[in-house]
Design brief:
The protein is mostly helical. Helices cover 66% and strands 0% of the residues. The chain is built from 13 helices and no strands. The longest helix is centred in the middle third of the chain and has 26 residues. The chain starts with a helix and ends in a 6-residue tail after the last helix.
Length: 290
C-alpha cells in the first residue's frame, strides 16, 4: 500500500513527471515571480530608473541617427529607401530589445558557474533557466524596444506599399517570431558557457551583432552571408525574409516564396535547438564541488 501511495503521488512542480504544458506554465510563473521581485527593488529608486531609461532611449536612438545621416548623401541603399530601412531597423531592434528584456540576463551564466552560485539556483524549487533569464530583470531595458517601436511606427506610416491582408498579418508575426528567435540565440549560445566560459562574447556577436546586420538590406551583403542567416543561425527569418514579401522586394537568393512565411517554423526550431543545448549543458555541469 505504501508503494502504491508513492506511485500515485502528485508530481512536484517543474519535475520531468509533469506534463509539458504544466512545466512550461510553472517556468513562466517562476520567471514572472523573479522578475517581479527585481522590478519592485528597482522601483524603490524611481528617479534613478527614469534617468537610466531616458539615457537608454537616447543611446539607442543614436543607432538610427547613423542611418539617417547616411541618407543625406544617397537616396537608396542596395535598392532600399530610408523608410524601408526604418522598417528593417524597427523590426530587428524591437525583436532584439524584447528578447533582451525577457531572457538577456542569461548571459551571466558563465559568471555564476565560475563563482559557484549556479548551484543555489539548481536546488530551488523552480526551473534554473527561468531564474537565470529573470535574474536582475530591469525595466530600463525597455528603452531599446520603445525606441524601436517608435521608428517602426514611423516607417509603417511612410512606406509606399500595397497593404494586403497577408502583409498586414506578417508585421506582428515577424515581431513575435523575431523575439523568439533572438531569445533562442541568447539561450543557445549562453549554454556554451557550460564548457567555454568566454562564450559570452560569441553570444553578443550573434545577438547584438546580428541585429545590427539586420538593420541593412540583404542586397548589400554577400550571398554567402545571407545564406548563412537562412540555413545556419536563422536570423534572416527575423525580418529579412518577411520584409521581402511586405515590401515587395526581390529575393537575392531566389528562395521559394514559402520561406517568406516560415518565421513561425524557424522560431519553433530555434527554441527546440536552444532547449536541447541548455539541457545538454546542464547535464554536463558537475557543480562547484565537482
Amino acid at each position: 500500500m505504501a508503494d502504491q501511495a508513492v506511485m500515485t503521488r502528485e508530481p512536484l512542480p517543474g519535475t520531468a513527471r509533469e506534463p509539458l504544458t504544466a512545466r512550461t506554465a510553472w517556468a513562466l510563473r517562476s520567471w514572472w515571480l523573479v522578475a517581479g521581485m527585481w522590478t519592485r527593488a528597482i522601483m524603490s529608486y524611481r528617479a534613478s530608473f527614469v534617468m537610466m531609461l531616458g539615457a537608454n532611449l537616447v543611446v539607442t536612438f543614436l543607432d538610427f541617427v547613423v542611418i539617417i545621416l547616411m541618407f543625406r548623401h544617397t537616396d537608396s541603399l542596395g535598392g532600399w529607401n530610408l523608410s524601408e530601412l526604418g522598417f528593417l531597423y524597427g523590426t530587428s531592434a524591437l525583436a532584439l530589445g524584447l528578447a533582451n528584456l525577457f531572457v538577456g540576463s542569461i548571459d551571466a551564466l558563465g559568471e555564476r558557474i565560475r563563482t559557484g552560485t549556479l548551484d543555489v539556483m539548481l536546488v530551488r524549487p523552480a526551473p534554473a533557466l527561468a531564474q537565470l533569464c529573470a535574474e536582475r530583470f530591469s525595466l530600463r531595458r525597455l528603452g531599446r524596444p520603445l525606441q524601436a517601436a517608435a521608428v517602426l511606427a514611423w516607417a509603417l506610416a511612410a512606406l509606399d506599399t500595397h497593404w494586403t491582408w497577408d502583409r498586414v498579418l506578417l508585421v506582428p508575426v515577424l515581431v513575435v517570431c523575431g523575439t523568439l528567435i533572438f531569445s533562442a540565440v541568447f539561450i543557445g549560445f549562453a549554454s556554451l558557457q557550460f564548457w567555454w566560459g568566454e562564450a559570452r562574447e560569441l553570444q553578443n556577436s550573434f545577438t547584438y551583432g546580428g541585429a545590427t546586420l539586420l538593420h541593412y538590406p540583404p542586397t548589400v551583403f554577400a550571398k554567402e552571408l545571407v545564406a548563412g542567416t537562412v540555413f545556419g543561425v536563422p536570423l534572416a527569418f527575423v525580418n529579412w525574409l518577411p520584409a521581402l514579401r511586405i515590401l515587395d522586394k526581390p529575393d537575392p537568393l531566389g528562395l521559394p516564396t514559402a520561406f517568406q512565411f516560415a518565421s513561425p517554423l524557424a522560431a519553433v526550431l530555434s527554441l527546440a535547438a536552444a532547449g536541447l543545448a541548455w539541457r545538454i549543458g546542464l547535464r554536463a555541469y558537475r557543480g562547484a564541488g565537482g
